[in-house]
Amino acid sequence: MSRAVPGSHDGTTPTPPRAVVTGIGVVAPNGFDADEYWDAVLHGRGGIDRITRFDPAQYPATLAGEVPDYDVRAYIPSRLVPQTDQTTRLVLIAADAAVRDSALDPAALPDDQVGIVTGLSAGGLEYSQRELEKLWSLGSDHVSAYLSFSWFYAVNTGQISIRHGWHGPGGVLTGNTSGLDAMAQARRYVADGLPVVMCGAVESAMCPLGLAIELTTGRMSTVDDRTRAYLPFDTAASGYVPGEGGAMVVVEEVGHANGRGVQPYCEIAGYATTFDPRPGSAREPGLRRAIESALSDAGVTPAEVDVVFADAAGVGELDRAEATAVTAVFGPRGVPVTAPKTMTGRLYSGGPALDVATASLSMRHGVIPPMINVTDPVRSDQLDLVLGRPRDTTVSTALVLARSDGINSAMVLKAV
């Protein structure tokens, strides 16, 4: 697809089309839609509790942020239920909600003019475990043929395409930063002339296999008090609590959105991603460079940023590195920093996507949602953490950060 940029006959440099967020769909442990989720984060209602999807008694970690029970057949066709993992079901629900929120009529566009980009870090683990257990215990005749694609990283992009009949450019990214990276890819598609892109990430790994895999990292909290288990930037930080959910958003070219009479939430104004140096090299981690590059890409200065949505690993070493990077760019206590994921747990690829949705809502409503449970900040001299209660303020520019095993991504959102 050729790049479509505004024509210029006066010698000025043409600028690429701008990508704006016009629709948001959320599924989270503390809210099954955007309104419910937003009300929860403003009032500090968390969704972390003891795992109910299976008995976690035999595992050292017993807490997670689970999406509340729901009637799946009320949201997706019955024929899809036996074909799909929880991850894909939640993706379809969030994508449908984003379409409704954007007031987009899918039939009003040629099917090749809507793109789809999703992020996913684990695949359909719950479905895979269930079918593999049948293989071991009952034999291959009892394994669903749908296993052939239900586990696959690209399945969410494919299922959205089938459901809505969209056949434009598509893609899938992987890793815990991929919810953010998917939105950056959507921005590139818009710059290349595509009017609409569905993008984001929703993830679920709430099964024994998923928990066992994550426990091998050594970074998961084993504290069984849901108010003390996940404490990023706190002296009592003991690791992270996993969760499920995320967000899907409709991204449009700003002229296309204006032509429909839609008021965007925000513009995806800048993005960058970096790698950390080789362990043992004594070189600085790459997060600061990602932040500075994203700000440069957006054409904004650190002083113009109103809030940072932190990655907030909940691991002492990683929290200190993030605090150092943020302070290096913004100065000591130079910008409000928040992590609403303290209410949901870390949602893998879905976490950064949900942070973008939350930042978009912050811009629309003029309030920064808080972190909860953090009572003894370890870097209070460095970070201006938004703790306990929301902070009413104009939010014109927000920075969202995400990290994943040596990868750092940063995105700048601006009010439109």
UniProtKB/TrEMBL annotation:
Family annotation (SMART domains): PKS_KS
Pfam families in the record: ketoacyl-synt (PF00109), Ketoacyl-synt_C (PF02801)
Matches recorded under PROSITE patterns: KS3_2
InterPro entries for this protein: Beta-ketoacyl_synthase (IPR000794), Ketoacyl_synth_C (IPR014031), Ketoacyl_synth_N (IPR014030), PKS_Beta-ketoAc_synthase_dom (IPR020841), Thiolase-like (IPR016039)
Domain Ketosynthase family 3 (KS3): 16-416
Keywords (A to Z) from UniProt: Acyltransferase, Transferase
SUPFAM superfamilies: Thiolase-like (SSF53901)
Domain of life of the organism encoding this protein: Bacteria
CDD domains: CLF
Family: Belongs to the thiolase-like superfamily. Beta-ketoacyl-ACP synthases family.
Name of the molecule in the record: Ketosynthase chain-length factor
